[in-house]
Amino acid sequence: MAAMSAPTDKLLITVAPTGAETSKADCPQLPTTLPELVQTAEQCEKAGAAMIHVHIRDDDHQPTLDLQRLTDTVDALHESTRLVVQLSTGGSVHDPLENRLEVLEAQPDSCSLTLGTTNFGDAVFLNPWGFICDLYQLSQEREVVPEFELFDLGHVHTLHRLLDTFGLPYGGRVHCDLVMGVPGGMPGTTDALVAAVNALPGQVTSWSATGIGRSTLTVALAALSKGGHLRVGMEDVLTLAKGVPVESNAQLVERVVHLGKIAQRTPMSCDEARDLLGIKRR
Ligand code: KMH
Ligand code: ZN
User: Fold this and answer.
1) Which pTM was predicted?
2) Cα separation of 188 and 159, whole Å?
3) I need a labelling partner for 120 at 20 to 30 A (CA). Which of 52, 112, 236, 261 fits?
4) pLDDT tens per residue across span 230-262
5) Residue 5 above 90 pLDDT?
6) Which residues line ligand 1 (CB under 6 A)?
7) Which residues are registered as beta bridge partners of 11?
């Protein structure tokens, strides 16, 4: 049972605006260029987000882990916003593990770190134990604060093993995100959320949740009622309701700000998010 489950009145909202799975052709409103990403980040910060989870694209709008582009993206987001900038180390299912380790060289505030291999629709999202250990130790060396991505209950148990083996992350806080409803991972249900949260290690200081696709609202409401934080964005969901496309990431942020308000949770500022996550204030 995690130590931090007392409800908080503040709500950390993370926006995941792009992802690696949706094509620009299928979704022209997906932010894939740097100007589009910066504009999205500015709009989402204004709407109430405090952290951005970033995947980038190349000139053909395809997912890339190009280090120069990642570095330019981190710099541009820091210049234009006060958001905590988290780079994805998950990339796309096609990215080699070595390239995913190199992401930390772009000096983000935070990086995602997934705790296990997951069937990902028809593909496989590869995260063997050795890679998890390498990435975690590198994050400690490079002073990048990880967000532990938990796609399944087994990942929660791997988080116990990781923290017991290598100690606390840089910054001393332990923040997790439950990614629920991926075909191959845990379902986006209240029961699964409660099971995962109740199994979190005692070192965990905060957690958020995101529900993929149609599970987005179920997971958001369950997370709010259990005192968790939220991640939303077009990486995870492309419709507001059946047949109603998302027009912008800010729209998704605004929606959970509204849900938070009903639950008497106020969006956290970027500085408050830095304190929560153990990231230095800029
Ligand atoms: N695109 C998925 C294969 C992460 O960003 O760390 C992996 C993912 C997780 O999105
Ligand atoms: Zn991601």
Assistant:
1) 0.97
2) 20
3) 52
4) 999 999 999 999 999 999 999 999 999 999 999
5) no
6) 19-20, 88-90, 92-93, 112, 114, 120, 125, 149
7) 267
What is the CB-side half-sphere exposure of residue 188 using CA atoms within 13 A? Answer: 21
> Residues 137, 171: contact at Cβ < 8 Å?
no
Pocket test for ligand 1, best of 95, 125, 177 (most atoms within 8 A of CB): 125
CB 249 within 8 A of CB 34: no
The alpha carbon of 262 and the centre of ligand 1 are apart by a number of angstroms equal to 30
Mean pLDDT for 205-234 is: 98
Query: In a mutational test of the pocket of ligand 1, which residue from 23, 112, 152 has the highest number of ligand atoms less than 8 Å from its CB?
Result: 112
Task: List, for residues 70-81, the tens digit of each pLDDT value.
Answer: 999 999 999 999
Query: How is 96-115 classified by DSSP, letter by letter?
Result: -HHHHHHGGGG--SEEEEE-
Angle between helix 153-166 and 129-142 (nearest 10): 50
Tell me: pLDDT of 134 over 90: yes
Residues with CB under 5 A from ligand 2 (ion): 88
Q: Which two tokens stand for residue 6?
A: 């007392």
